[in-house]
Design a protein that fits this description.
heterodimer, A: about 290 residues, mainly alpha, two-stranded antiparallel sheet, about 5% strand, B: about 350 residues, two-stranded antiparallel ribbon, 15 helices, 4 strands
Chain lengths: ~290, ~350
Amino acid sequence: MDILIYGIVNSFSLALMAIGFTLVYGISRLPNFAHGAIYVITGFGVWWFIHKLHLNYALSIILALVLMGLIGAGVYRFVLIRVRGMATSEIIATYALGLAILEFLRWRGFKGMTYTLPVFIEGSIQIAGVPIDLQRIIVIGIGIVVISFMWLFTHYNKTGLALRGMAQDEHAAMMLGIDSDWMALIAMAIGSILSGLSAVVLLPLGNIVVEAGYNVLILSIAVCIVGGLGSWGGAILAAFMIGFVQILTVRYIQSHFHMVVALLAIILTLILRPSGLFGRQKELEERV
Amino acid sequence: MEEKYEKVTSTIERRKERLDRGIKVRTEGIYAISSLEEVAYLLLPRLILITGLLLLPALIPSLYWKRVISITCIYALLALGFDFLANFVGLVSLGGAFYIGVGGYMAAILNKYVGLSPILTIPLATFSGAIICTLLLLPALPLRGVYFAIVTLMYPLAIARIIEALNILGGTDGILGVAGFPSRWIEQYIIILIIIFALFGLRRLVNEDIGLVFRGVKDNDQAVRASGLSITLYKSIAVFIASGLGSLGGAYLSHIYMWSGISQFALDFSIIPIAATVIGGGGTLVGPLLGCFILVPISEFLRAFGTLRIVFYSLILLAFIMFRSEGVMVYAQRKYHQFERWVKV
């Protein structure tokens, strides 16, 4: 029973972490490999607003999220736009940026046990005899809200539809009057806000550490790739598969294998089916 | 590509024109040997590079910086492999650390558990490392572009975590007590000779018939397939060569530090060669080598600042990718071979 409950919690955390990356990479084909760095700076940003500027918790969260949106848009406007269309340069450039941010934070001494965010509501409840704290319930709740909101956004909103159109065929989208730079800017901003949101929800469960940046990036890539590019259903299913397999390996094999699961999932999926479980896009471009 | 060379400045009436120097054209064929001047034009850059590399250990007195030279050369091997794979075969491999790690562990195992001397372990580790890397990457070879890049980025991370989790091969401590080199001079000159050999060997290779096929795989793999050639075979040959260079570097690294551990799978070995290639100029093979000799010593200066050096070289990488993606060497070659003048449009 506790495997089921913690599996669900873990899966929703993964889905939350990955949803920003999935929106940006899966839907709009902009690899934002600074995703993990944005996750971590949101954490430190909120911490800094609370402890150095003495703002209240809700206000700091909102401020931090707005800031992340600006950073995401800035990354597109000043970095990605220059290497647009060269897929590997996009990856290397954003990855270098993320690396620079994370290692700068590490150099400034943002590490160790001292950086934590308060939970939203204290306390825990029992579900079927398993104790679970309220923050984890909130993770599930926000996960469901965000996922359904994003699904509706990309299916029934003009902007959201434009984002998907751009991923499927950029030239055709441009002919239909979609400004691809503007759309990409929006996608990056929303993706970064989602990444920040997941940080705000998930970080109270532990410490804010720089390493989390790398892990979040790997997990997001795993969910996005296993699920299939451009498929929300696939991404959610992938989050559940990886989430449960992680909990099962930690329970029955060893906790060290936590990340190995995600890494092997990426490698195997790319080798066997680069489009992922549910991706149907551009299969001919992926392999010879 | 044409527009790139004809930069329009201030007004529309004038533009910069670039033309090949006469001597460049004259030295392209066999008649280059007809005059001393032309021979010198061809040999000078190469001789400067070779003598510069050979003199380097003698010119640098401190023991610490001599060690840095060896490390730079190891990065240069990786960067050569990266440039070869990315710009001549079209496989962007972000996993330099994978080759280093496999080679390093192979050398350590052969030395420590089998008891061979470094003269045997280095070639054996190079060869077996290249075979292991090629076999492990074989399933990923049909992938194109970004997908191959992501898989190769994940390989070293996965292997390091697996070694850590299973606690095999010395676990987090690594394999200690690997034999070292008898003297610093031998250590440096062997690796310097290796990189000179690797550089000119690869340059020769890409101009042979097989080099044409490699470039065909990069530009239009379907055309290569239509010619009845197996793409996977050629890709695996290329990966074998590049991973062999990396494994050689790894084996050397293990013997230099007399230790082999999971930090050989660290990101440094994946990022620095890429940064060096971008800075030096991709597709020139000499560029990555120069890039390493620029980047690694600077990063070594910054070692006192801890992880700030990673910040530093990732920012340099970012800046070069964004603003000067041609790199130093392409720029230098253009200046050497061509002259510029303003012409009226």
